[in-house]
Amino acid sequence: MAAQNNAALPDGLEIAGYRIVKKIASGGFSIVYLAEDAEGGAVAIKEYLPSALALRQPGQLAPSISKAHLPVFRIGLKCFFEEGRALARIAHPNVVRVLNFFRANDTVYMVMAYESGYSLQEHIARQRNKGSKLGEAFIRQIFIQVLNGLREVHASHLLHLDLKPANIYLRTDGTPILLDFGAARQSFNADLPALTPMYTPGFAPPELYQKGASLGPWSDVYSIGAAMFACMVGSPPQPADQRRGDDKMAEHFARLDGAYSAELVQLVRACLMSEVLARPQSLFALQKVLLAAPAARPAAGALARWSARLRALAGRLGRPGAGGGAAPNTRQS
Q: N or C: which end of the chain has fewer CB within 10 A?
């Protein structure tokens, strides 16, 4: 994703009844601030500010936008505003809560509930630094809840389009929230192809690389698979555009054998299929697999059972009077 080159709003600035405390995140598309509302409660405010189209120098509030970029800036602004309005109608524990949105400084701001916690990406990095990987039970539990939220999003006729561990936030109690929807970003790809694509390589489905390709729930399914893969491996899958020429994903999946259940590995493999129709066709289908307990590994289970039987048989044969002689020859000549 492109870097954010614009100056952030100054700490302490009063805007539409909120006071900016500090910048907490930024990307090529927006800047996010920690702020306080009129009652002193903490909120997060996301500012629409695509760095490829707008320029704001330190000390300025409104960005400068060239005439050439103004039409696309306005299209993206409209999408951002409409997205905020749609998200404001969603009240779900696994979807970021939009409280308000307003216009100021020639752009639009989305006010969201502020939650204490950290991103799933940060959690993955911490575990890797400790030399450990995320357990299967944890991955299943997190993504069952993520899919609950995503189903609500899809039911509201929205797509996420930027699903990745950095956009899955874990509250302090461990429950996940979907953040940073990417619908407005798609206006750039559609209306100004010369701009740097605003998606994350590895997590973006193949159709996001193709101008005019049909996007739908299947696009988010691919990204869900990519996010689960990142939890298992510690890094994103091979970018979809590179897979067209030299697909190396089979090698990665082979290395996961034994580390996670065959059912989970197969689910992730199915989500990451390049062909849309080869992916699971509903979020419910994904949840069904995640909710089901993984089957015991046949080899290990069979070995344990046979070992127990052999020990029992050896014990019986070793007891006096237990018929410990040679087995009779029952073959007929």
A: C
Cα 282 to Cα 287: distance, rounded to the nearest angstrom: 9
pLDDT tens-place string over residues 28-87: 889 999 999 999 999 999 999 999 899 999 999 999 999 999 998 998 888 888 888 888
Per the CB < 8 A criterion, the answer to whether 227 and 164 are in contact is yes
Phi-psi category of residue 203: left, alpha or beta, with phi > 0 → left and psi -120 to 50 → alpha: alpha
For residue 117, list its beta bridge partners.
171
The residue behind tokens 């999003």 is 153
Round to whole Å and give the CA distance between 12 and 36: 10
235 contact partners, CB below 8 Å, separation of at least 6: 202
Report the predicted TM-score, pTM, of the whole model to 2 decimal places. 0.81
3-state secondary structure 252-294: HHHHHECCECHHHHHHHHHHCCCCHHHCCCCHHHHHHHHHCCC
